[in-house]
């Protein structure tokens, strides 16, 4: 296929841009978190077209709180009002480009370098989105892309949705401050029973096969420490409970919590002697814990991503730009988290 055709033909660019986006989210390790419905853990929106501004507004419906109407009491005139909160997400452009080399490189190497470049960009984007989502869900306020704030900074969890191992401040945590099953129970209690003296939101659970669940994601080091410190028989029961659900992304099921692990969980403090060890912000998640918004970055109003081959050095070299306009944000109102509980604990590699 002629490189010149790829560069100049808009149909090819649009087709590959659509393919890049359609394959992107399903290929991420967090695909199970992302969906379009209000029952998704990370709700996505894609309808912000070119020229529509740099913000997308999500309407978040609050839970009903009324007592209901008993017996022959009058229903009419006692309806409960549906309450919504508007939640705005700022989007910003992010691009990455790869070089597929010159014509002699294409002559020498038995690969389709254009296809390889497209696949490489897809993998890069999937990894970048996963990092971005975990940074916001865990509240990694140090997160930057190329040293810059991207769209909006992640924020710390509020104090009413934040559990710390042994109630120790993050800066003072040591190898003694590990996450255990009791801490998981505490995180679930915080999600289900907001403080009565504070305007907190109850974390809305997922409903799977008629049962309520929360998603819990631990850093790999934290997960392995939990496994080592749990009775072998009990751990086997937790694995068997997860296997019955037939959800490949779930490692164990405990007390209505579907527990997974990921190396992308934010590390907010590094140990002075081993930078791999330190404090990690694990997360318990319910519906609409976060949002991801996409703008119109393509060549038409409805195209979400851009895929642009371009030539340099008198058309001797071919490069590919893969771009998108997006933003990620943790959902909160009046400074209170809506769908997450963060659990800070110590983690370290196994010696």
Chain-wise SSE layout:
Elements: H1 3-8, H2 10-27, E1 34-35, E2 42-45, E3 55-61, E4 84-90, E5 92-102, H3 103-108, H4 113-138, E6 162-164, H5 181-192, E7 206-208, E8 211-218, H6 220-228, H7 232-245, E9 252-254, E10 257-261, E11 267-270, E12 278-285, E13 290-294, E14 305-312, E15 317-330, E16 332-333, E17 336-337, E18 340-347
Parallel strand pairs: 1-2, 2-13, 6-18, 8-10
Antiparallel strand pairs: 3-4, 5-15, 7-8, 8-12, 9-10, 11-12, 12-18, 13-15, 14-15, 16-17
What would you say this structure looks like, in words?
The chain has 351 residues and is an alpha+beta fold. It contains 7 helices and 18 strands. It has helices at residues 3-8, 10-27, 103-108, 113-138, 181-192, 220-228, 232-245; strands spanning 34-35, 42-45, 55-61, 84-90, 92-102, 162-164, 206-208, 211-218, 252-254, 257-261, 267-270, 278-285, 290-294, 305-312, 317-330, 332-333, 336-337, 340-347. The strands form 4 sheets. Strands 6, 7, 8, 9, 10, 11, 12 and 18 form an 8-stranded mixed β-sheet that branches. Strands 1, 2, 5, 13, 14 and 15 form a 6-stranded mixed β-sheet that branches. Strands 3-4 form a two-stranded antiparallel sheet. α2 (10-27) crosses α4. The chain is globular and about 80 Å long.
